[in-house]
UniProtKB/TrEMBL annotation:
GO cellular component, one term: endoplasmic reticulum membrane
Record keywords, A-Z: Endoplasmic reticulum, Membrane, Transmembrane, Transmembrane helix
Gene Ontology molecular function, alphabetical: enzyme regulator activity
Protein's pathway: Protein modification; protein glycosylation
Membrane association type: Multi-pass membrane protein
Domain of life from the UniProt record: Eukaryota
Name of the protein this chain belongs to: Dolichol phosphate-mannose biosynthesis regulatory protein
Region feature (Disordered): 168-188
All residue ranges annotated as the C2 NT-type domain in the record: 2-145
Subunit structure, interactors included: Component of the dolichol-phosphate mannose (DPM) synthase complex.
Main localisation: endoplasmic reticulum
Subcellular location(s) per record: Endoplasmic reticulum membrane; Membrane
Amino acid sequence: MAFLMKKKKFKFQTSFTLEELTAVPFVNGVLFCKIRLLDGGDFASLSTREEVQENCVRWKKKFTFVCKMSANPATGLLDPCVCRVSVRKELKGGKTYSKLGFADLNLAEFAGSGSTVRCCLLEGYDTKNTRQDNSILKVTIGMSLLSGDPCFKTVSGVPCCSLAGVPEEPDQNLSSPEEVFHSGHSRNSSYASQQSKISATDQVVGFGLVAFSLVLFVYYTLWIIVLVRLSPAITIPVTQVLA
């Protein structure tokens, strides 16, 4: 009867910071973004209009809004909640604009994880007739639980627990060379630490094997010495053996 159970409801206070767009395919122009919730609310807002400088646009614009989410009552897994960032370029002195691309961010991935930096490639609106550029959008997202069960699971399947009404503290370990990319790969020092632990374990095991071998060598040496000393007392005459 699990299908008759109502879905769990959540409300999250969301802090969405539009950081920058890098690898812009032109050297001048004015860009701005529209941030809009496709699920979980009706939030929509525009960023400031900034000029392209050295193939990069920096906004550093922070948006705050409430996002509603639901979760499976049996598993506690949060349903997808998509926020779309649409990048646009001014035309005709700002009277009109063209859409350069967009990035869809599933806010359910960020619930209960504190302040998280995410970089993702822009997707094109017209991928069939237009060559897609490699512009990278950088955002920072932080979410804190306002209402709902404090125990839930994110889309990645990692159990999370948040304190309602208490803002998440930013993760101090996230910096520009260790940002988590949209493709799902993260670059950090955990791999190196794991390798160092493995090498230390191998050294301990190797030392134990050497010590065990040394003990066996001493034991068998003493045993041979004892046998050699007792050999005259237990020697059997050769004539008896031949008989």
